[in-house]
Amino acid sequence: MTPSSSIYILIPVHNRRATTLTCLDALHRNGDMEQYRVVVIDDGSTDGTAEAIRSTYPAVTVLSGDGTLWWTGAIKQGMQYAYAKGASHFVWLNDDTLPAEGAISLLIAACYKDAQKIVAAQCYSPTNYKIPTYSGQVKRFLSLQLLFVPEGKEKSCDCMSGNLVCLPRSVVDQIDYPPSHKLPQCLADVVYTWEAKKAGYSLKVLGDAKALCEFNSLEQNWSSSPMPIWHQWQRLTTPKSNLYPPAYWHYCISFYGLLAPLAFTSIYFKLLLFTLARWLLPISHLKKLKDLKNQWVNPS
Question: CB under 8 Å to 60, separation ≥6 — which residues?
């Protein structure tokens, strides 16, 4: 078995000192920090994140960015550092994701069994262990469906959220690093793992590898959110948005090929309809309509 010193846990962070330290605390409690190399890529935090890490966990390597890396640039920098140090595997870990004890070891053990395997954990809300918040996803025409894997099982998927994923070193040799210039923040994880699958990698989700992470709704609930509609549209101009047009277009090209124009335009057409609904109907009515839709789609 490859020595644990060649496993690098990569954590991109920006201005979330308390969240980042909570994540590192979890790694310490689980014994992961002592067993594997932990690298935090701090993208220009101004809240003392780097200083707090060096003070509390001096064994953690802190790489610095200038605030323009975003998630993808930070994870790429971490992968480049680990690759140069001779890493056999990379473990992507978001700082708002808290691995359960043994989860990272399970992912690594699964990857050791197959050199062409990429493995992800399932994330759950602390208040709901029945439906994952993040996991692998399966391609369905012009959409992605979140996968649920029971305990003791593993399932194949088409792509993965990057909350907690183990990847072999060879993925860099075959498909290079994540494309930070095309997908600076959102969707980079699902596109990169999708491209890895197309290159011949097997993507698996382990039901026994668990972590805690609340779901970030991003562009969800346009029709019923109390946020002013102009602010919703304004968010689309930043890479923080899941529907940032340049990144979303690259996602559509990667997943849907010739159908990319249809996939790309349809989502913004829906947002226009939501905008119209916000202007015409009270939010209370829209929430009731959403509840009725959920009851119809997911009857109890």
Answer: 24, 33, 38, 39, 40, 53, 54
Q: Which residues pair with 11 in a beta bridge?
A: 40
Distance between CA atoms of residues 169 and 183, nearest Å: 21
At 297 the pLDDT is 41
Give me the CATH code for the 4-212 domain, please: 3.90.550.60
Enumerate the H helices of the chain as residue ranges: 17-30, 32-35, 49-56, 70-84, 103-112, 170-175, 188-198, 229-235, 245-256, 260-280, 283-297
Average pLDDT over residues 136-148: 93
User: Hunting for tokens 């969800």 — which residue is that?
Assistant: 220
**pLDDT at residue 288 in the model:** 60
33, 63 Cβ separation under 8 angstroms? no
What residues does each domain of the chain span? 4-212, 229-297
pTM listed for this prediction: 0.89
For 76, 178, 287, the CA distances from 42, given in Å and listed in that order, are 12, 18, 39
